Amino acid sequence: MFVNQQKVRSFFTALFTCYLILLNQMATQIAKSEQNDTRNWLNNHSFSLYPMLSS
Fold first, then answer.
1. What gap in Å lies between CA 18 and CA 16, rounded to an integer?
2. CA dihedral of 30, 33, 39, 42, whole degrees rounded to 10
3. What is the per-residue burial (b if ≥16 Cβ within 10 Å, else e) of 24-39?
4. Which of 1, 11, 33, 41 is 20 to 30 Å from 52 at the Cα level?
5. Is 0.85 surpassed by the pTM of this model?
6. pLDDT tens digits for 3-54?
């Protein structure tokens, strides 16, 4: 019984670790794409925003 519990616990620990790693990678990917989107948006809109900001 104890050995089974140990196996189950280590299995769930490994599963949880994999889940955290995947979550971290997804978050990093999302952050990167959001950064690129923001940069693209700024590049596209900087000329149209400039007259409003300067007036």
1. 5
2. -80
3. eeeeeeeeeeeeeeee
4. 33
5. no
6. 788 999 999 999 999 999 999 999 888 888 877 777 777 777 666 555 555 5
